[in-house]
Amino acid sequence: xxxxxxxxxxxxxxxxxxxxxxxxxxxxxxxxxxxxxxxxxxxxxxxxxxxxxxxxxxxxxxxxxxxxxxxxxxxxxxxxxxxxxxxxxxxxxxxxxxxxxxxxxxxxxxxxxxxxxxxxxxxxxxxxxxxxxxxxxxxxxxxxxxxxxxxxxxxxxxxxxxxxxxxxxxxxxxxxxxxxxxxxxx
Length: 186
Description:
186 residues, mainly alpha, 3 helices
């Protein structure tokens, strides 16, 4: 933009002379006009065109940079998406493996619980059989006890009767002795 702009001072000079200004004054005005015009930094159409061309080049370069950045971003996003997809596949495989392991553990637990339940059922049957046997033995002991008690009662009753008879016999003898002693003179 520092390009000097050409001013037609001769034209200005001729116009000033036609208006009646002296040649010296017209020449001075033309000179002042030319100098003031050169001192002012005014953009010309050519300057604007040059700037526009330069900016167009810069804009095109920025657009190319943006396109490159977008391509790079797309590439990185695609790479990230692929990594995320790989992680998801890995997670899915691990979850499936874990689910399978959990299913195996559940089957194993079920088998163990069934085995334990069967063992508990066997223990209960064994306990029930033992309790029945013990109950039968207790019933036999009670029966034997009752029989023995009954025999003992009979023996006691028999002994009691024999004792009563003996006591009765002794009483008779004692009464006989007392009566004999009473009949005896002293």
